[in-house]
Amino acid sequence: MQSQHVSPFLLGVLSRLVVLLWAILMTKLGAPYDSSTLLLPRPPSSQLSIPPNFFGCMNRESCLLDASILHLLSSLSNWDGAYFIHLAGPWGGYWHEQFHAFLPGFPYMLHFLRITILSPLENFGVASPRTVLLLGGLTLNVVAFGLGAVALTGLTRRVLGPGNHVLLSTLAYCVTPGGIFFSALYTESTFCAATFWGLWALEEGIAEAGNRKSFVWSPLWRVGLGASLLVLASSIRSNGIMGVIFVAWSLFRIGSQQWLRWEKRSTKGKELNELCSFESLSLLLPHLLVFIPSLILPFLPLILFSRHARERFCSSPYTCSDLPPKDDPPWCPCGPSSLYPYVQSQYWGVGWLRRWKISQLPHFVLAFPMLILGLVALWKWWSRGPGVWKWGGSSGPLKTIFRLGQGKLDEQEGRLTPYILHWLLLCTVGIFFSHPQVLTRLCSSSNPAVYWTLAWAWSEGGNARRIILATWCVGYTVVGTALFTNAYNWT
Hints:
mainly alpha
């Protein structure tokens, strides 16, 4: 079966609807282990007031509908979902520093849906704001997951070329081991869609630049579009700032293509090392300057978000050497960038080796399959492209770098380079700094190479390997959904 005959959007949407139906069934059959996961944080009465209809409808005739929806779907707003509903609620605002662990991109999307498309439900008293936000968030995630499937399909064709692996990658995405987190009121689906569309735009820009005989501006707007989508991703999740790796790679690839094209026209038989002159660099400088804003953009959401918090919680500007006022939070002296790591460390226990305890061993076991898959991808990438990594010989390191940027030493492994490095960085952060159990959904929502590796392992493996892969992906979804909806700790 060829992938062009199958709608990736439809596959993605149907897969999420199946997970939602399974979640509803598990909600009906089970009982919540920790009912506090459904409680919404309430602002101090001295600061903000809660609308009287936030937790329930005001129209008595529709209360039954409202209560029924919450009974079936409220378990999908466990854990982080409760925070997102609070942040997108009628009062909005980050009135406590703890809430700054959640970036504003996803709550703003929920708020926008509530006041636009879904506003009749609330205005006519059919549903409470909480129910409207829950319905909007679940619908948004289903649609975003379908859009992510479309982007992954296009990205796979561009990076790996046409073939059966395109459909296999899309199918692997639809049974992602991230499971319930792509359906529940979490950020995985929207973050994944923004990231994959951004990467697709970057790859299209690289391909267009490589097919041109002279420099044109059209690849640049594609790269700018890709960087903008990665900015959207970094406003949803903090690990979106790692998208700068892909923007930098795009800069490198397009810049090296322009360099080598100029070198071929300008010299015959000269060593590339001899061309590092002011004249040759000046030809590339205008091109590279276009990309500099794109390298900065992925960091802007977190910087602006932290700056807003500093203006709200800190009484006055000062440096790290100053003593803060008594009532200021301890993170204020060291600038806006210190807020997010402080909140993660103080309220979520994130930090170097802080999760390396015997009691955390089951969480490392949950992360083990994703870690192994990443190591397999790293090994395959390295072993199949040895010529790319030879720095000696007659080529010299500088020429090797630019030829790798052009992708001629090994086309497929050369194009996979930023994806493997990004995956390696995610695994490093997940194992040594963060909660290890989140590694599965962290990588599944951030890097398309996860699905490319699953497709390769499935197509080249025997029945035993396929059973293991299917058990992992489907098992994590089935078991994870049952545990998550009943408020048991999962990945």
